[in-house]
Amino acid sequence: MNRLLPAALAAALVTIPPATHAADTAPREPYGIALEGFAYPYPAHLLPVINDGEQLSMAHMDVPPAQPNGRTVVLLHGRNFPSSYWAPVIKMLSEAGYRVVVPDQVGFGKSSKPQGELHFDNLARNTIALLDHLKIDKAEIVAHSLGGMLGVRIARAYPDRVAHLVLTAPIGLEDYRLYVPPTPTEKMIETEDKLTAEGYRKQLQTNYAIKLPPEAITPFIDARFNIKGSPDYPRWLRAFVSSGQMIYREPVAHEIPLVALPTLFIMGADDHNAPGRPLAPEALRAKMGQNAELAKALAAKMPNARAEVIPDTGHLVFLEAPEKYKELVLDFLGR
């Protein structure tokens, strides 16, 4: 079994030539559905939370800086990625003096997989509960992909708890209900269960225009497909599908122009990710996922926002263009 490739090496891997996808064909030793067996770069702690009457645990990393500047950054992960992929950004922010708090939202990573449905409002409340638990009054929010939708919800619901908002290749810049018909949860579960590791690799490369070699993507394949050997896999699968329904049913595009906090969009020019596009009528698919243009248009409507677009970059902006990302984020947070 291929163990986790440390996410901190992801940027360096762009110089390694492509290799065979051994992880897609080798026997897989099962992980638990809380990613037991999958290493994180820093210790993960558990915070008890209650969502809709269900007792759950929210995993999080809390990384102190060597020379504190008195400020904290909260990193919000995407749907298809464990929060371990933030390792290079954690290091970058920690070296700049920030305390870095990195939660796995309920339903993801090392956190509990609920029996009930996922909702952005619950995830937002959980994140604020984590800040309360850690005695953090105000934080910088740096979010990626699905985390961008959550970051918007947090900024709208708890503006006094957020200093700056960085939306890194966020999804949800459009209302996918305008293009994609509703899909029953059981149908989505059936489709996701049939997906193979190689098919998932192709899905990531196609949907996210990833500019990384196969070896850098392998940890994401492992984090999803080694779970299939767990007896609790059906519960993980239902939670994963619930996150897809949450994206579809709880849009934030209409709220984004109302965010008054200082906001920075960092977009990959080649990132045209649009959840649900294959289910949309063919005539509408080309209209979806114009993410860089959507970000610029939304920023123009906001009182204190701007959009930066990085050329030749896909959805994993902070791994594909780490130096430019560092420059943009540290400059923005320093204002």
Blueprint (SSEs and pairs):
Blueprint: H1 22-25, E1 45-51, E2 54-63, E3 72-76, H2 87-95, E4 99-103, H3 120-133, E5 139-144, H4 146-157, E6 162-168, H5 185-194, H6 197-208, H7 214-225, H8 233-249, E7 263-268, H9 282-285, H10 291-301, E8 305-310, H11 317-320, H12 322-333
Parallel strand pairs: 3-4, 3-5, 5-6, 6-7, 7-8
Antiparallel strand pairs: 1-2, 2-4
Helix pairs in contact: 3-4, 5-8, 6-7
Structural write-up:
- The protein has 335 residues and is an alpha/beta fold.
- It is 36% helix and 16% strand.
- The protein has 12 helices and 8 strands.
- The chain has helices spanning 22-25, 87-95, 120-133, 146-157, 185-194, 197-208, 214-225, 233-249, 282-285, 291-301, 317-320, 322-333, and strands spanning 45-51, 54-63, 72-76, 99-103, 139-144, 162-168, 263-268, 305-310.
- The chain has an 8-stranded mixed beta sheet, sandwiched between helices.
- Helix 6 packs across helix 7.
- The longest helix is centred in the last third of the chain and has 17 residues, at 233-249.
- It is globular and about 50 Å long.
- It starts with 21 loop residues before the first helix and ends with a helix.
- The model is unreliable at 1-23 (pLDDT under 50).
